[in-house]
Structures are given as C-alpha cells and as structure tokens.
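Figure 3 (text version): structure tokens given as input.
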C-alpha cells in the first residue's frame, strides 16, 4: 500500500510529557557524531595521497560510503527532539519521519554499493592496490553487496505499509521498518512511552499483545504520541477531529492546558 507524499509539519505542542528525555542515555550524541566525520576524512586523504590507482579508488569509495552513513545518523538524531513531533501537514493525523531521515534510509545502502562496485572494478581491471591475503578482505565485496541489496529489498517490501503511524477515526495503522500496526480503537488497551528514557511507543491490546514502535519510525516524541492516542481512546465522540491532523493536535493541546 503506497501513499502520495505529503508535506510534513514540525510541531512542538504544549502537551505534558513528564520531562522524559527522548535520546538514548538522555544525552545528545551529536558531538560524538561530529567526531565520526574523521573516518571518511581519513579515507579521502589517503585517496588523494596514495599513488596506487586501485587503492585510491577503494579508499575514496569507502570514504564516500562512511560520509553518507554519518550524515544519515546525524539526520536520524536531529529528527528527534523532546516535545517535538512531525506530522503530515494535511489530511488525517499521521506521525511521519522528516524527509531527511527517509532519504538516509535509502541513501546509506545505496552508498555502500559504491565500494562494492569499486572492489569489483579493481579485481576485473587488475588495478594496483594494497596487497592483502586476509579472508575478510576477500569477503568484503560480498558482505557489502549482501548488506546493501538486502536492506534495499526490505525497504521495497515495506512500501506496502503506510508511512509513519496514522491515527484516524477508525484506529491506528502503518509504521514502516517496524512491526506493522493495524488496530481498531476497541482493540487498543493503552498507549505509553517505554524504555529508560521513553524512546519508544508501546501499544498494548485488549488481547494482551504488545506492539513497540521505535521513535525513528515516526520522527516524533513517543510521549506526545501516547498522550494524543490516550486522549482519543478515552473520547470516542471526539475521534472525528482526527480527520484534520494538525487540528487534532491543537485540540489535545487545548484539553491539556
């Protein structure tokens, strides 16, 4: 099942969250991520200084793949802020990751195909490179191919699921890259943030099952999502408001004031 892309709005509604941090350990990992940019920089420097064409090609391609990986991790971290949510700017209420995060999901596996192709070219063209007899070096092209193609295949299969978490008048639906959510309101027992610092959303059903949704699949603070779901779970007569997503957030905000 696919959906036409819609603009995404970033909101910081005044809905109480209990002050729960959203990032692992309650600390912002961006300083650490900045340090990781050293790895691709080393690859690019070696590619410029070395004289062996095959080794230069390999290091440049690895530097590129690592750069895209670090950029993807940075986009993932920047998308999550305590008290902030990303929702579809039109239509029913749908919590969705921002475009930068969605681009990273595709860009990282594609980027790791580049060094895989480089290794094949080096072998086929017999380009001069760093000699190595290790099994790891011999298996590296296959590892990169398998990682990239399996990840891309999973992304293609996930397109059958609606992007993000849709909270509509008839229930909850969607979430790519995680366990699929398909719940009618009468089947939902509760919604709550879970984890040491609330980085996930726990949906409990009346049948005793549990569905855990990672914050990266919604691009939103799970404590806000849980508060919105609980608001409408307890107010069946108000669920028609969910046809206007941003309006529904404002209604929950007003009720919490």
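Below: residues designed for each position.
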């Amino acid at each position: 099942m696919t959906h036409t892309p819609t603009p995404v709005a970033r909101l910081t509604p005044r809905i109480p969250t209990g002050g729960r941090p959203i990032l692992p350990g309650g600390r912002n990992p961006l300083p650490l991520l900045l340090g990781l940019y050293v790895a691709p920089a080393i690859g690019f420097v070696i590619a410029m200084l070395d004289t062996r064409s095959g080794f230069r090609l390999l290091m440049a391609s690895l530097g590129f793949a690592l750069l895209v990986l670090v950029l993807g991790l940075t986009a993932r971290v920047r998308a999550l802020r305590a008290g902030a949510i990303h929702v579809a700017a039109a239509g029913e209420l749908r919590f969705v990751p921002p475009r930068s995060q969605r681009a990273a999901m595709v860009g990282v596996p594609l980027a790791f195909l580049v060094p895989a192709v480089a290794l094949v070219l080096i072998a086929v063209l017999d380009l001069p490179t760093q000699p190595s007899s290790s099994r790891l070096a011999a298996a590296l092209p296959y590892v990169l191919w398998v990682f990239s193609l399996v990840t891309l295949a999973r992304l293609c299969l996930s397109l059958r699921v609606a992007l993000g978490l849709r909270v509509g008048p008839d229930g909850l639906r969607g979430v790519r890259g995680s366990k699929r959510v398909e719940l009618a309101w009468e089947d939902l027992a509760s919604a709550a943030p879970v984890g040491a610092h609330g980085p996930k959303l726990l949906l409990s059903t009346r049948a005793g099952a549990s569905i855990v949704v990672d914050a990266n699949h919604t691009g939103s603070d799970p404590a806000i999502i849980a508060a919105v779901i609980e608001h409408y779970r307890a107010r069946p007569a108000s669920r028609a408001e969910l046809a206007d997503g941003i309006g529904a957030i404002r209604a929950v905000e007003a009720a919490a004031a």
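The chain is about 45% helix and 15% strand.
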